Amino acid sequence: MTTYILDTETTGLVDPHMTEAAYSIVDIIKGKVTVLQAPRAKRFNPLKEISLGSMAISHICDEDVADKPPHTDFRLPGSVEYLIGHNIDFDMAVLKNAGVTHTPKLICTNAMANCLLPTLESHKLVSLLYHFHRDIARTQARDAHAAIADIYFTELVLGSLIDLANSKAMR
Which domains does the chain have, with CATH numbers? Predict the structure, then answer.
């Protein structure tokens, strides 16, 4: 089975168009996330203005993507069976806005965290990174909201959530 961890950066929350996509190909073997292909990222022209809020989060400005291929050039291989991401439903909506018609099975680390850690103060990706991997968060979380960094953070959080689910199942 082909499984991607995917993250997108967008123009905003209303009718979001992609400004950047990053993905990594992974497998989950015996409860461990194994990276089969290191993260890759590509920027796209969203063909619409990027909101100030999105610029403040991703630091991608209109002029950074003006000469990039249009977001509608993004292709999700039909062989992808699973897409994993933090709030993956949003990323899937972004892909649909780019014209992607293939819909793999979705695995959301945000939903997993809400289920496994219902009393945790925050289920944001970087909050979970601090919860599970404080040393990495302290040194690398400044790169959050760069799609390629978020792929790595999602991979780490996913592995920790699988470990937590397995330890709860053993009880």
Answer: 2-170 (3.30.420.10)
Task: Count Cβ neighbours within 10 Å for each residue of 9-37 and write b for 16 or more, e otherwise.
Answer: bbbbeeebbbbbbbbbbbebeeeebeeee
| Span 21-73, pLDDT tens digits | 999 999 999 989 999 999 999 999 999 999 999 999 999 999 999 999 999 99
Q: Where are the beta strands (DSSP E) in 30-164?
A: 32-43, 80-85, 105-108
d(CA 43, CA 114): 31
Report the candidate in 25, 38, 12 with the shortest Cα–Cα distance to residue 76: 25
Phi and psi for 136 in degrees, rounded to 5? Answer: -70, -40
CA distance 45 to 56: 18
